[in-house]
Amino acid sequence: MINVVLVALQIFLAFVGVYQFTLALFGIVRKRKALKYEPQKSFAVLVAAHNEEAVVGALIENLKNLEYPKELYDIFVICDNCTDRTAAIAREHGVYACERNNPHLRGKGYAIEWMLKELWSYQRQYDAIVMFDADNLVNTDFLQHMNNDLCEGHQVIQGYLDTKNPNDSWVTAAYGITYWYCNRLWQLSRRNLKMANFLGGTGMCFEASLLKEMGWGATSLVEDLEFSMRCVKRGVHPVLNYEAKVYDEKPITFKASARQRLRWMQGHFTVARHYFFPLLWASIKERNFVKFDAALYSASVYTTFFGFIVTAMIWVDNIIPADNVFVSIYNYLPWWVAAVAITLAAAMFPFVMMLERVTNWRMYAHLFTMIFFQLSWLPITFYAFFTQNNKQWSHTEHTRVIRLEEVQSKQVS
Fold first, then answer.
1. Which neighbouring-strand residues pair with 133?
2. SS3 333
3. Using CA atoms, how far apart are residues 263 and 23, in angstroms rounded to an integer?
4. pLDDT band at residue 46 using 50, 70 and 90 as cut-offs
5. Which one, of 401, 369, 392, lies nearest residue 178 by Cα?
6. How sure is the predictor about 285, in pLDDT bands with cuts at 50, 70 and 90?
7. So what's the architecture of 43-254 in CATH?
8. What is the mean pLDDT of residues 137-156?
9. CA triplet 320, 321, 327: central angle to 5 degrees?
10. Contact 243, 145 (CB under 8 A)
11. pTM summary value
């Protein structure tokens, strides 16, 4: 009986792998979009911050210099349970410092929900809400691109997520490569196929009227994924803007990275529990492929979890000097099938780096350490499964300042 379940799991995992690979092919071609609307939408730019005195000033300076009419956007720093000078720095830069103190409801999701309620009571109302994290930097044409998509009728928009410190360590290099891969072969492919994209936690834009109607309601450890599923469930498709770039600072050490990714996976399990079956049922009932794709994406944390278990069982079975107990589907396939699958999976990363015009040879060298980074997702996800009820939000500390000019100069060099 256990081998029947094992084979069924392997077939399902193979289906998911082939499905995603096929989808990725539609991200190879990139159609550049020209800006074609005059600035007309007004924006409330929200910056989520918890003890971010080291980096928030650089982002505020960056945002104040956006190539967009200054009268059409205001900057609000959400100082969430801050015990440092984050609020003072925001005021010194002449932007709104909105202080929230609630030690019982911690995390960005709760902070955003609170800020939106505050915002709706303001005298000035905005056409759209844009959200960033305090450690971000953003290209100066970001709001122009958001204006463009809003004018075309889109209600939820995700910018291109990049890293601002990929050269800091092998860990940040792995994040950078992963972001390039996901932007091109996960997100752009879905944009090209007119499917729903998925929010990435920052560089997000929402039509204000939609947020007022829906409410935020996303307070899990992965509020971005949760809100994405809420949108798809009600027929709203978030869309990627590939030209609107946001740079996110990533943890330098493996320990900090593992802690961050554990939090992501714990939250992902929560979202999967709440949205997989409703979206799957709706996709069948409505014959809606977009909802099927979202359901499968919400369950991707389980494919990683079961993939780890199946792989571990088969490898241990092969190592033990005795007759094999567990069945591998590759035993019934030609040898070259596994070889082709592994080769294609490995080749996708350097291929996407060439598509993204990455010229730094050191980043290509980091493809070897990237293997360890990718494999580390397996035990992290496994551990997250058994700790998924832990809702404690963890803060990633930042100790230095990076400005947009430095990021852009390193991209050119």
1. 48
2. coil
3. 27
4. very high
5. 369
6. very high
7. Alpha-Beta Complex (3.90)
8. 96
9. 60
10. yes
11. 0.91
Please tell me the distance from the alpha carbon of residue 3 to that of residue 327, in angstroms, as a whole number.
6
- pLDDT, mean over the chain: 91
| DSSP conformation class of 93 | T
Name the one residue in this structure whose structure tokens are 């539609």. Answer: 26
**Sheet strands (E) in 203-300:** 204-207, 239-248
Q: Classify residue 340 as exposed, middle or buried by CB count within 10 Å of its CB (0-12, 13-18, 19+).
A: exposed
CB atoms within 10 A of CB 22: 10
275-to-51, 229, 295, 359, 363 alpha-carbon distances in Å: 32, 7, 7, 40, 37
Question: Which residue in 258, 203, 201 sits closest to 225, CA to CA?
Answer: 201
Backbone angles phi, psi at 241, to 5 degrees: -110, 105
- Cα Rg for the chain, rounded, in angstroms? 22
Query: And the tokens for 9?
Result: 């799991």
Tokens of 92: 């010194």
What span, in angstroms and rounded, lies between the C-alpha atoms of 337 and 320?
A: 25
Q: Which two tokens stand for residue 352?
A: 């996407």
How many whole angstroms separate alpha carbon 143 and alpha carbon 127? 12
Higher-scoring residue by pLDDT: 366, 105: 366
Domain ranges of the chain: 2-27+272-386, 43-254
Residue 194's region, left for phi above 0, alpha for psi from -120 to 50, else beta, is: left
**What are 320-329's pLDDT values in tens digits?**
766 666 777 7
Q: Under 8 Å CB-to-CB from 37, ≥6 apart: which residues? A: 147, 148, 151, 152
